[in-house]
Amino acid sequence: MSLFHLFVLAVVQGLTEFLPVSSSAHLILLPMVMRVPDQGLAIDVAVHVGTLGAVILFFRAEVGQAWRGVGHVLAGRFATPEARLALLLAIATVPVVILGLILQVTGLAQAMRSVAVIGWTMLGFGLVLYWADQRGGTEKRMADWNLRDAVVMGLWQAVALIPGTSRSGAAITASRLLGYERADGARIAMLMSIPTIIASGLLLGADVVGEANWALARDAAIGAGLAFVSAYLALAVMMRLLRSVSYTPYVIYRVILGVVLLWIAYR
């Protein structure tokens, strides 16, 4: 895999991972646009792991709180704010792990990597995001996150395993429907990505090590490093913009891209 291909792949992943436009869809479409072989799920996961480092660094205070919460839970101290955050993140991750394993074992994960599927999900879930953003309240903050909301957002996140849906977009849509203010809803969605990316990285990372494919491992490491840099910059810009901008620009992008992809798929 060429360094240029890795560079483009990592930048695209970093710029789209935390925006509600589906990074996985862009990773699937990129080889078609560049006319190169598909990079495969292992590289896809590697660049996702790079963005994992970015979100951990950007939200280091909340991540530190959740990490301390793990210790509190193991010590039987379930009532602390730290333990509460750790438990809610774990609960929100359960649906995506279960559905992800089912899709991987059945082969449906690969079967859904098509232009038609991405086109419909890009368009449909873009319109759902617009509806949720316009009707959603702003009365809830991150401190209000509870068990019910964690389950709801976790189920929405699991649906995002369908390419083109957008993991962050699905979680953000759920947060807006539940009444969370834009920035706080996005913050929760970003924190939810951490255990999800760790789970997927461990699943496919084990396959890479098992195959002893060190050339692939080298490419994965380079891609992860490049994705880390671009993701951190994209995340910083998005969180700043959310103070004054709605999700409408992202919806417009999704609708346009979805229509174009459907035209390509059915022409």
Q: Layout of helices and strands, plus pairs?
A:
Elements: H1 3-16, H2 23-34, H3 40-58, H4 60-74, H5 81-106, H6 108-111, H7 115-135, H8 147-159, H9 167-177, H10 182-211, H11 214-241, H12 248-266
Entry keywords:
267 residues; mainly alpha
Short recap of the structure:
With 267 residues, the chain is mostly helical. It has twelve helices and no strands.
| End-to-end C-alpha gap | 31 Å
Query: What portion of the residues fall into strands of 2 or more residues?
Result: under 5%
Question: Helix segment count?
Answer: 12
Number of domains: 1
- Could you describe the largest sheet, including whether it forms a barrel? none
| Structure class | mainly alpha
What fraction, in percent, of the residue positions are helical?
Answer: over 70%
**Which of globular, elongated, flat, extended, rod-shaped describes the shape?**
globular
C-alpha-based Rg, rounded = 18 Å
Point out poorly predicted stretches.
Answer: none
Strand count: 0
Order of helical and strand elements: HHHHHHHHHHHH
Mean pLDDT: 87
